């Protein structure tokens, strides 16, 4: 597999931070009583960071397109089971204990299969489906590359996807079992295809993303106004429900796609600066999956400690910062323990202090 471009690590970290901020905003909206003007601002910010799942899917598509060697399916699936599903199952049971008092075995199985143990776990159920289809996806990507059909492919994919989303948009708002289509790979396949296109046409992709920034910024701001308008005309400003905001409607598809282009350009810029921000995002990128599935636990642990007398927006920001630091920090510590594979899907990291470090520590010990 080719070396992963540095900007993808930055994008992954930004997507993780967006998830945590969404969760913080949701918690404050649902458990505190923000004023109407604060609720409006939080709704707008929620839309602004509502790009995480499509970006993660984009990144999976990119990585899968980088598969150049022969695929050993059983080995690949076993690796993904260890990396993704074992932590998913462990954390699901943590959330069963946290959120549910009495669950029957059938209900536990249903929530495991559908990713309902916590609000964010549906993503794991959806993304594993792409990995299971690798034997179809990778040869198809290679065929597209041989025929140089990428431009036609992404245009056709976009048309089909918009049509599909237009069709299922009313369904995902219903209460029937059909609405679970929102956690199938079909509901996000366009972003996956976009990632594949980016991987195979990387130099052209980077050039296009950078050149499109002025026009795309205008497009993004216009779509931001549109999706915000749709939110506020569909709900009362005194009872905004952020859980009703869905990726699966045509305007959000256009909005999120535009935001992916902007994020990619921003990520390239961050990489080029080689600043402390880049260093921090690289570190966060090592633990995004473990921190992603565990962050809701830490959020609910620390949320009661935040004074309710503060402005709701300030509460959300503080909760976001504490949850981010706790999630990444705990993952870093767990990575050096035997629990690493169970909780964050990574093999244990054996850390040793370097000789210069030990010498410094000894100098600091009083005799």
How is this structure best described in words?
Helix content is 73%, strand content 0%. It has 367 residues and is mainly α. The protein has one domain (6-363). α1 (6-31) packs antiparallel against α3, α1 runs parallel beside α14 (288-302) and α2 packs across α11. The longest helix is centred in the first third of the chain and has 27 residues, at 73-99. The protein is globular, with a radius of gyration of 21 Å. The termini are far apart.
- How helical, in percent, are the residues? over 70%
How many angstroms does the end-to-end distance come to?
Answer: 53 Å
The helix tally amounts to: 17
How big is the Rg?
A: 21 Å
Oligomer: single chain
Report the strand count.
Answer: 0
> Can you write the helix and strand succession as a string?
HHHHHHHHHHHHHHHHH
The low-confidence parts are 360-367
Strand content: under 5%
Family: Belongs to the acyltransferase 3 family.
Protein name: Surface polysaccharide O-acyltransferase-like enzyme
GO cellular component, one term: plasma membrane
Transmembrane segments: 9-28, 40-63, 84-101, 121-141, 153-173, 185-205, 217-240, 252-271, 283-306, 318-344
């Amino acid at each position: 597999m080719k070396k992963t471009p540095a900007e993808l690590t930055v994008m992954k970290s930004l997507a993780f931070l967006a998830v945590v901020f969404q969760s913080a905003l949701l918690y404050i909206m649902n458990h505190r009583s923000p004023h109407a003007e604060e609720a409006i601002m939080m709704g707008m910010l929620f839309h602004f960071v509502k790009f995480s799942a499509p970006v993660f899917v984009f990144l999976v598509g990119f990585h899968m397109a980088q598969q150049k060697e022969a695929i050993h399916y059983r080995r690949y699936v076993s690796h993904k089971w260890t990396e993704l599903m074992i932590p998913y199952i462990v954390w699901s049971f943590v959330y069963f204990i946290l959120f549910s008092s009495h669950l029957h075995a059938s209900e536990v199985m249903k929530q495991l299969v559908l990713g309902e143990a916590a609000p964010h776990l549906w993503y794991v159920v959806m993304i594993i489906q792409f990995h299971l289809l690798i034997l179809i996806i990778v040869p198809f990507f290679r065929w597209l590359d041989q025929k140089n059909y990428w431009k036609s492919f992404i245009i056709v994919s976009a048309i089909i996807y918009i049509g599909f989303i237009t069709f299922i948009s009313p369904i995902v708002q219903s209460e029937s079992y059909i609405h679970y289509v929102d956690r199938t790979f079909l509901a996000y396949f366009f972003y996956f295809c976009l990632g594949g296109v980016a991987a195979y046409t990387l130099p052209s992709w980077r050039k296009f993303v950078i050149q499109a920034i002025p026009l795309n910024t205008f497009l993004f701001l216009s779509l931001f106004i549109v999706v915000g308008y749709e939110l506020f005309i569909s709900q009362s400003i005194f009872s905004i429900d952020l859980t009703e905001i869905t990726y699966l409607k045509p305007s959000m598809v256009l909005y999120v796609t535009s935001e992916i282009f902007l994020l990619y350009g921003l990520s390239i810029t961050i990489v080029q600066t080689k600043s402390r921000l880049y260093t921090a995002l690289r570190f966060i990128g090592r633990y995004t999956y473990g921190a992603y599935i565990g962050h809701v636990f830490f959020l609910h642990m620390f949320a009661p400690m935040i004074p309710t007398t503060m402005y709701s927006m300030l509460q959300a920001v503080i909760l976001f910062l504490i949850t981010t630091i706790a999630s990444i920090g705990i993952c870093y510590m767990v990575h050096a323990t035997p629990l690493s594979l169970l909780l964050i899907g990574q093999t244990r990291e054996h850390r040793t202090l370097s000789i210069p470090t030990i010498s410094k520590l000894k100098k600091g010990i009083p005799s």
